[in-house]
Amino acid sequence: MRIVLFTGKGGVGKTTTAAATALRLADRGCKTLLLSTDSAHSLGDALDTPLGGTPAEVAPSLWALQLDTQARFETAWREVQSFLIDLLARGGVDPITADELTVLPGVEEVLALLAVRELAVTGDWDALVVDCAPTAETLRLLALPEALAWYLQRVFPAQRRLARGIRPVAALFGRGAVVPPDTVFDALLRLNDELAGVRELLGDPTVTSVRLVLTPEAVVVAEARRTFTALALYGYAVDLVVANRVFPPGADEWRQGWARAQQAQLAGIRESFAGLPVREVPYRAAEPVGAGALRQVADTLYGALPGDDPAPTPSGPPLVVVEADGADYLLRLALPLVAPAEVEAARVGDDVVIRVGGHRRVLTLPSVLRRCEVVDGRCADGRLEVRFRPESGRWPAEVPPRRPRPNGAGGPS
After folding, report:
1. Has residue 174 got a pLDDT over 70?
2. DSSP calls for 55-114
3. Do residues 126 and 30 make contact, with C-beta atoms less than 8 angstroms apart?
4. What is the C-alpha separation between 112 and 108, in angstroms, rounded?
5. pLDDT at 138
């Protein structure tokens, strides 16, 4: 199974490159599903084929669909929503307003992620190609499984115990319905388990990789650089950068000016994303719509020869590593293209909270580091490095500290 996510600033050609990649995979005999997490679907327009909420074969070995997140919302959130509507009604909120207030911001994106995992675990497909929403929404989307899982694991078990204790007392006063029933907690805990599965699947670099699509313009490139850093912070591997709509040289001064400006940006792109392949797609004379035009884009991206694999298994160092260093341990987290002054990190209980710009990640420490104290930290050479030292009072004298595996960060909870 291979999952490839395409993201980038709105309007740079994510949908085109995702559809072209899916077609190339299908043409190589790989049973491929193409879908989108963007609420403004345009896959059907790119393929020039109407799509529905169930997979439809649009070319040999290629299926595509438009996710119906509203139907999924009604199924997955009904128990919680019913309780919240009843609670608001007790406060005098009319049913229509209560129904609108209980549609949580971002819940459609969460359900889109759950749908990706659901489709992946069926085993029906060799590859999933996902046309993601523009970068800001994609980053929120990819950060959600870890953030919500952290909250649900720590807060709701305690809330559930409290509710069980309060419910009999509240019932004596005729207000038992105000206390959440167990079905609400069960629904939230199911959501936690499903989100953990999403994080495990999309955070596995041997299965999932992200591809950044950009156009060689200063504003777009700046956003792509920030996105690259944020994806590393959240633990998602990037395996390709696509520079789309590159102007070919021309005789007229206007086109020459654009070509010179774009070549300067392309030089900066190769330097910024050193170590990653950068594929260029020229500005075409006509919009690439339909399978024929998309295959031409795929030829440019991946080579005209059918043996050029458009989705090889990613390879590269892990983004989070814990390793022994003498008597100490080092936690290393890749943070490319970021200035040290932009990074903040602090130990909070069994977690390390890391902030980079407007992004925040709570990284749960593996057990070996929970019994250590932080003695130093620095950010340099594209990575954050935190030094831990075992606290003598927290280690049994007869049992030496166990060395973690090379990638023993164990992933965030």
Report:
1. no
2. -EEEETTEEE----HHHHHHHHSHHHHHHHHHHHHHTT--HHHHHHHTS-TTHHHHHHHH
3. yes
4. 6
5. 73
Amino acid at 31: K
Two tokens, residue 297? 């884009």
DSSP 8-state assignment for residue 48: T
Q: How far apart are CA 135 and CA 6, in angstroms?
A: 9
Q: Does domain 1-310 have CATH number 3.40.50.300?
A: yes
The DSSP 8-state label assigned to residue 340 in this structure reads: G
Residue 16: helix, strand or coil by DSSP? helix
Other C-beta atoms lying within 10 Å of the C-beta of residue 399: 7
CATH match for 320-394 among 3.90.170.10, 3.30.420.150, 2.60.40.790, 2.60.120.10: 2.60.40.790
Could you tell me the CA-to-CA distances from 379 to 120, 356, 375, 376, 385 in Å, in that order? Answer: 36, 11, 14, 11, 6
More confident residue, 233 or 405: 233
Query: Would you kindly state where each structural domain of the chain is located, as residue ranges?
Result: 1-310, 320-394
| Residue 379 Ramachandran class (φ > 0 left, ψ -120 to 50 alpha, else beta) | beta
Query: Is the CB of residue 334 less than 8 Å from the CB of residue 231?
Result: no
pTM of the entire structure? 0.79
